[in-house]
Amino acid sequence: MDKRLGDDRFWMSFGVGMAALLAGAGLYGANPYAASWDEVDFARALERYDLLAMQPHFPGYPYLILGGMAVHALVANPAKALSILNVLVLFSAAFPIVWLLARHMPRSAALWAALSVLSSSYVLLAAARPMSDGAALGVLWWYIWAVEWARRRTTWMAQLWPAALFSILMGIRLSYAPFAAALLILWHEDWKTHRRLGRVAASLLAAAAFQFVWVAAVAATEGGLWPFFKLGWAFVVGHFSDWGGTAAASPLPFWERVRRFVLDNFLWTGMASRNAWLLATYAVVGAIAWRTGPFRLPRPLVVSALLYALWALFGQNIDKPRHLLPLVHIALVFVWGRVLAAPRSWKHVLAAAVVLLQAAIGIGLLREQAKTPPAVYQLADDLRDKRQPFVVYTWEETRVLDYLNVPFPHKDVLHFSFFLQDKENYRHAAIYMTNHVVQGFEAQGIDVSRHVRKVKTYRSSLLADPVYGTITLYEWVDGAVR
User: Do you find a cis peptide bond into 409, omega within 30 degrees of 0?
Assistant: First the structure.
């Protein structure tokens, strides 16, 4: 008994030290760059909140921006302030994950299971950016824990805690809405136990009131609920019909979309961080989990995860694996819950080895992300030194160039007809365009290959930014276009 107690204390102490190391690495590697359209939206919102100017875009993310403003008071760089907030909230999830798992295994094993989840290399990289992913993932685990906590109690008041946390979750990342299924299951079970319609109605009203708090606050900044909902409708239509990369707007065949979703985005990127050693490691860990452990995920979490998977597959951009972060975390909780449910010391050793491997890979990725300027930043720096006059045509890169206050003209161009018309305003200037513009013209059936000359290619982490991690600059050579 004394030996077992000593082992438990050792693993607890080791785990706490490892958690501190991971959190410190995440804070140190917090991304200081706003390198995409969405990241610029969030960074600018910390200094002037304006939905109409997409600072940030709909639905406003008020709780994320409020927390970012608090950190921004201490950290001058708004992008880094948001990244730090994401890391802090993400690592706070260690508490609810441990509490969820401690009902099935010793607390030291639960701690190492939580560390095995939170040290996920790709999740660390994606969370330490000025977006809403890291904070949303952290709050998601607090919400799931609160649902399970309320399920074990019979009081109506216990249901207020998950309803309030779900409101905070929606005020951070609305795309996590499918996890509302956990609340619905909680209310359904309450109805089966008490058969009191008034209780269920009161729960629904309380949840709606919590949501109304942030919706009304954001709507007030836009002049009322009607302008807010009009703006929201326009955003939703654009997301599904134009730029959102959803199944409705993408030409990608269904089975190719499924293949990329499962193999590329979930397994190769989400679980393995595009690292062969980590992929092989999880093949072994997965095989062990399959053969051992009685652990099962709570039913509300399973149902919610399945609904979110469908939403991520059909309603999110398949080019951005970060949309699968909740599924990666949930899968890791399941795997490590099964592996560590049986109190065997060698399983602690296995978990520690995987945590160290993931941490080494993740810290390396964080360091590269924090120290290597994104491709669009490199492009901007080069063009600052280029002799004028010239103009640069881009796609989403123009949002970042505007954020960087570059001293040269730049425009986003989506249609070839607009480009032909607009370039006439720059007859005596050099005309440059990025590869995304060239590819966009090709998708419209316009071959411009004979009329562009490659100038330079800029590269940063494709794992951190799969869409704009590589940017090639071309110079336009005038003449007839086929």
Answer: no
